From TrEMBL, chain A:
This is Queuine tRNA-ribosyltransferase accessory subunit 2. GO terms for molecular function: metal ion binding; tRNA-guanosine(34) queuine transglycosylase activity. Transmembrane segments: none annotated. Keywords: Cytoplasm, Metal-binding, tRNA processing, Zinc. Its cofactor is Zn(2+). Belongs to the queuine tRNA-ribosyltransferase family. QTRT2 subfamily. It comes from Musa acuminata subsp. malaccensis (Wild banana). Residues 16-391 form the tRNA-guanine(15) transglycosylase-like domain. Heterodimer of a catalytic subunit and an accessory subunit. Zn(2+) binds at C328, C330, C333, H359. HAMAP family: QTRT2 (MF_03043). GO terms for biological process: tRNA modification. It holds the Pfam family TGT. It is found in: Cytoplasm.
From TrEMBL, chain B:
This is Queuine tRNA-ribosyltransferase catalytic subunit 1. GO terms for cellular component: cytoplasm. Belongs to the queuine tRNA-ribosyltransferase family. It holds the Pfam family TGT. The active site is at D91 (proton acceptor), D265 (nucleophile). The lineage of its organism: Eukaryota, Viridiplantae, Streptophyta, Embryophyta, Tracheophyta. Catalytic subunit of the queuine tRNA-ribosyltransferase (TGT) that catalyzes the base-exchange of a guanine (G) residue with queuine (Q) at position 34 (anticodon wobble position) in tRNAs with GU(N) anticodons (tRNA-Asp, -Asn, -His and -Tyr), resulting in the hypermodified nucleoside queuosine (7-(((4,5-cis-dihydroxy-2-cyclopenten-1-yl)amino)methyl)-7-deazaguanosine). Catalysis occurs through a double-displacement mechanism. The nucleophile active site attacks the C1' of nucleotide 34 to detach the guanine base from the RNA, forming a covalent enzyme-RNA intermediate. Zn(2+) binds at C303, C305, C308, H333. One of its GO terms (biological process) is tRNA modification. Keywords: Cytoplasm, Glycosyltransferase, Metal-binding, Transferase, tRNA processing, Zinc. It comes from Musa acuminata subsp. malaccensis (Wild banana). Residues 246-252, 270-274 are annotated as: RNA binding. Its EC number is 2.4.2.64.
Amino acid sequence: MRFAVTRACGGGGGRARTGALYIGGSTTAPIETPSLLISTRKGLPTFVSRDHLAALPTPDSLLLHVSPLHFLDCPSSKTISNIGGLHQMLGLHEHFFVAAPRDSLESLPESEGTNKLGASFETPCGRRLIKPSAYVEKIASLKPNLWASMADEVPAWVSEKRNKTSVDRTLRWLDECLALDPAGGKTMLGLVVGGSNIEERKHCAIEVATRNVSGFWIGGFGLGENVEERSVLLNAVTDNLPEEKVRFISGLSLPEEVLQGVASGIDLFDSTYIYHLTLGGFALIFPFKILDHNNLDFQLDDTVGDRTKINLRATIYRKDISPIVANCSCFTCQNHTRAYINHLLNVHEMLAHILLEIHNTHHYLGFFRAMREAIKGGKFDLFRQRFVESRRIHLTSAVLCS
Amino acid sequence: MALKFEVLGKFNRARAARLTLPHFICQTPLFMPVGTQGTIKGLTNNQLEEIGCQIILGNTYHLALRPGAELIDDLGGLHKFMNWKRALLTDSGGFQMVSLLHLADITEQGVTFQSPVDGKPMLLTPEESIQIQNKIGADIIMALDDVVKTTITGPRIEEAMYRTLRWIDRCIAAHKRPDAQNLFGIVQGGLDPVLRDICVRGLVDRNLPGYAIGGLAGGEDKDSFWRVVAQCTAALPEDKPRYVMGVGYPLDIVVCSALGADMYDCVYPTRTARFGTALVPEGVLRLKNQAMANDERPIDSTCTCMVCRNYTRAYLHCLVTKDAMGSQLVSYHNLSYMMRLSKDLHTSLVEGQFPEFVRGFLRAQFPKGNVPEWVCNAMEVAGVDISTCCAPITS
């Protein structure tokens, strides 16, 4: 694995950057960052099967997040190894897997059960305590391209003492994972925690940076911290991590949160946004070219929500034979109409979610691409400002109308 | 008439044909997956095409309820609404009435029932059913028939059969698009050969584009089932398609094809997939079973579908009944299996290999030779020699 920063000081007070992540052999095109990790359930997207996954933009859509906790009960590590690991088991030989236990949806850090022996998670199989040795064993059978060490992620409201303990444990488990790793850290991402305490965040980052890992996974966010203080905390971490190593994060899902993370120098995001949109029957529609002078040219949708997504359950779409987004090249927009998806949602058909997940993933990847363009052009701050404003226009216009 | 039916190969009563419909040229025998509400659960159109689906069935009752016949018509018909480029078949809505609504009542006028939306009394007449189906726009539409369960006995069956004949005339009169949509009549008559015969002759007199054998696949014993199919296929015209409604299990399809039927539909392959059961040459594979947890083989080593080429039983075992992806993948395989079965039936008849195919099929399902007696009897009537598949009878 190799990572290189391709454009620094693209905005965000100098921290936003674009990069290139080389995971496959030297012949594969790099994944440009900032980018998105596609969420999976037992290694596959929730609704998008491998043939439709292959039709999403590449190489952006090649990076998948996987949680080893999804495989706690089956298949056994031995069976997974016999089959040949994740790539073989899932039939996704061209894709790259980044393994981290927390998936922010169903495998949630449960800090009260965590103790010196292991990290506790709420999973669909109940509350489970994961020990570093068991974790590394699962990783060894899964053979992901990259994997994060184990962490004690705590919510923002714990005591200082508990927070400090979480940092100590996380560092200890990092060292344990490193010791057990036959590759000596070459495919490892060091976990950085520290809760809402700036000093602990700084301390943890400095410590992890001294270990022989290939990149970093920033944990503990999206667990109740104040959105305003988040930037300060993020900067405390990234300012103390080496520039040239890649940085992943979980817990920042919404576009605004991603923008916040990019502004602090984060490269890759594990987001639950697409999942929640899809289950809710929402489809993303915001335009990308928001930097074109005063072009706030949104699709004129009469009401229903903000101008960045539409709720396809709404009755106004019953006879709407246009695609979700005109000129969108995803399978859904090339083949189906808003009216059809509205019908599918009304009759609770699985196809609705398949089509929505395809479109939303395609569209969100487009958002990341637009962000990268903005950074390369040195206009990230403007991009961020415009985007946030556009998400709130419907609120101001609603006020004006009332 | 908006279809062409050309027989390409035969073995006694069994036949392979080319069925040319307005939207697609099909090969029979064929199985039609059921896309109840305008979608096959969990599969996209391009996947269905890859699998080889030729005709999909839509349920008039469900579609008339949601999104509604008017809406479908306004948006250009069901093909356009779903963006399905191949053929569609809609049923009349009659069966759902009777099976889904416990307050349905059948009179000469039509089927009266309580609207599931607001409880108001409603009436589905032959005219109404055809009108709705004209709006939906499928290549093949079904007449509204008076369906009775085969487990019922008595004068009700006779009443239903004669009413079905009276209703076919009303359906024919109401059908506004015979140039674009083919109206199939449905043979009723329960398990009574006399009634069935009357119904067949009555329908044949009307010179319809195709005929269905209805009222079966509802719990009757297999021995009665095959005899009714055999009787009907013997009496229906050679040069028109014959559709056995609600069938079904692969074994049933093979037997009915041997007896001269051409088209089938059933929810079984997709429904059983959602419960984690995969269709294989040996019968079924219950992926939920603990024995599958460490089985590194694909569902079916002879299957070349996307699922069998990429996934193991062990991995699918994790997914089924728990994750949406499990439903999708097993449905994909099960439909691939049914399409492969259809294609094998067609090809074996065209190439003069039909008895060999049947024997191979039965050997895989009954390796110990315990072929059910009803199958043996049916194959005898069909003139297919399966003696080598059956274990010798111990006296």
